[in-house]
Amino acid sequence: MFLQIHNLNKHFSTSEGTLVVLKDINMDIEQGEFVCAVGASGSGKSTLLRQIAGLDSPTSGEVKIDGKRITGPGPDRGMVFQHYTLYPWMTVQQNTEFGLKLQGVPKSVRREQASYYLNVVGLTNFAQALPKALSGGMKQRVAIARALASEPKVLLMDEPFGALDIHTKESMHEFMLDLWQRTGITIFMITHDVEEAVFLSNRIFALGARPGTIRKVVNVNLPHRTHTIKRQTVFHDYRDELMDLLRQHGQEALAVV
Amino acid sequence: MSPSAPRSIQPYIKPKTMRPTVFWRLAEDIPKSLQTGLMITSIVLPLLLWWTVTTFSSIDPKFLPSPAMVMEAFGRLWGTRELLKDTVASLWRVGVGFSLAALCSIPIGILMGSFPSIRALLEPIFGLMRYMPAPAFIPLLILYLGIGEEPKIALIFIGVFFFNALMVMDTVKFVPKDLIESTYILGGTRWQTLTQVILPHVLPGIIDACRINLAAAWQLVIVSELIAATEGLGRRISVAGRFLRTDEIFVGLIVIGLIGLAFDLFFQYLLRISCQWANQKR
Ligand SMILES: Nc1ncnc2c1ncn2[C@@H]1O[C@H](COP(=O)(O)OP(=O)(O)OP(=O)(O)O)[C@@H](O)[C@H]1O
Ligand SMILES: [Mg+2]
Fold first, then answer.
1. How many CA atoms does the CB half-sphere of A6 hold within 13 Å?
2. Which candidate in A216, B89, B104, B224 could, as Cys together with B152 as Cys, close a disulfide (CB 3.0–4.6 Å)?
3. Which atom of ligand 1 is nearest to the CA of A43?
4. What is the pLDDT of residues A164-176, one digit of tens each?
5. Where does ligand 1 bind, in terms of residues with CB under 6 Å?
């Protein structure tokens, strides 16, 4: 197993007492898998990703990558945030190089590496632009290039396309699949868009809220992954199954409140 | 059970449209020509008023000298080199006092903003000191440091240091947490994050804090010179006051204002050239 999450629990203490956000999460993810976690807003998806990233530590349980327990953030995991996190004073090129610079990679090497990944995300022509000159989709592509440039073992993504319009989103999906096939990188992506999850991933973890637990794991076997698949019954079956599940979770959550 | 739909608010809504305007635009650019015109008016109108009042009324020039008399006084003081000496003396005090204060307060402010531990250690005492008006320290400063240059510089230091440190701290607190965390994920150490992410991000804020606090330094130098000094613009004004040379008071005031404005413009320029990314028009 490559990425292991073992009996993970996460509590937050708030003014109203202890809030159990994640409860008994177990996941085993193979190298090269593309998995998605779906769940309603507030089900603890971002919190889960933060534990994997090492930005926060679990109340109990552990996260391991390649057998090594995660104790803090590091460049073996790349991350693309829900919000845009480019450095506004750096050009696109400098943003992409920044992770390598932090790790002391020589200038010529990092320039080459960054240029390569900027080409991969199709932004070579914008290398010298400042982030403020980019559209939302372009910003997320730079963030992806920046994460990839450090050659991480796992790419963590927190609703990276949530703010994009449907067409930009579709082209980002094709881009992600292409990237995944070319690099063979392990991807863990969070989304609340069920279609996105079905279209992209091998496996989907459906999270229920309050407390966040894994309610169901769905293995996705699609004959091919081009946009025409979205009109076929296999696709609809997966989608409907997950939608029903989330709807049910949503009603349970409302009943609790 | 969901509550029943509220009754319609339509009867309360009067139809209205926004009329186009040039002068009353909210947070929008106005035409360049209008802007220049208004900016000139802002200076010329008060001057014109001043001139009119002194020319067409029989006001005592000891009370309000005319622009021409002030110009004449300026020429006189300039000719004897006194004005230059005074200006240099004041500028020197501000320069030394403010630079020292900035040099100490910027790193401390950054540390306070970055590390909650240092903030907890220093914020209470700084917050308290900030509310003690610097001029209230004058008697103590004279007692401790005499009446030379030291107490004047110390006064400026006290007046600038605490404010600047707290203002710099605030700008650091506004660095988005996501940006810091993505730096950690890219493999940055805390030191790298501090120097390569937090510092560039707060640079515009620091320049702005310095710009605002330089105005305070400029006020304090004048205050310090009113007490005890042999030269300086504040000294010039207080001497002129004693001998009822109102025209020289005006010269002093105008020179002080112009130098302050020049400082302000300089800092604005610095901000513009050093932080291109921060002046996005939105
Ligand atoms: N630092 C924190 N302190 C206290 N409560 C927190 C903290 N972080 C998250 N929570 C709570 O944990 C729950 C899950 O939050 P989380 O951000 O993980 O949800 P999410 O599934 O990512 O939602 P969304 O889809 O809206 O991004 C929420 O109820 C939130 O209020
Ligand atoms: Mg989230």
1. 13
2. B224
3. 21
4. 788 888 888 988 8
5. A 12, 14, 19, 21, 39, 41-47, 192
Cβ–Cβ < 8 Å for A102, B186:
yes
Nearest ligand 1 atom to alpha carbon A14: 4
Q: Which residues surround ligand 2, an ion (CB under 5 A)?
A: A 46
On the question of a cis peptide bond just before residue B151, with omega within 30 degrees of 0, the verdict is no
Q: Describe the strand order of the beta sheet including A60-65 as a list of residue ranges.
A: A17-29, A3-14, A60-65, A68-69
A129 in Cβ contact with A53 (< 8 Å): no
Q: Which amino acid is at A188?
A: F
Helices B246-274 and B199-227: angle between axes, nearest 10 degrees:
170
Strand partners, B245: none
Domain boundaries, chain A: 3-76+154-256, 86-151
3-state SS assignment for residue A44: coil
Amino acid at A55: L
Question: Which of A55, A85, A113, A140 is the best substitution to test chain B (most B C-beta atoms within 10 A)?
Answer: A85
3.40.50.2000, 3.40.630.30, 3.40.50.300, 3.90.78.10: CATH of A3-76+154-256: 3.40.50.300
pTM of the model: 0.82
A144 within 8 A of A121, measured Cβ to Cβ: yes
CB A209 within 8 Å of CB A196: no
Compute, in angstroms, the gap from residue A45 CA to the centroid of ligand 1.
Answer: 8
Residues 152-191 of B with CB under 8 A from A: 176, 178-179, 181-189
Domains of chain B: 73-281 (1.10.3720.10)
- Nearest Cα residue in chain A from B176: A85
Other CB atoms within a 10 A radius of the CB of residue B114 amount to: 21
A188 close to B (CB below 8 A): no
Tens-digit pLDDT profile for residues B228-277:
778 899 999 989 988 989 999 999 999 999 999 999 999 999 888 877 78
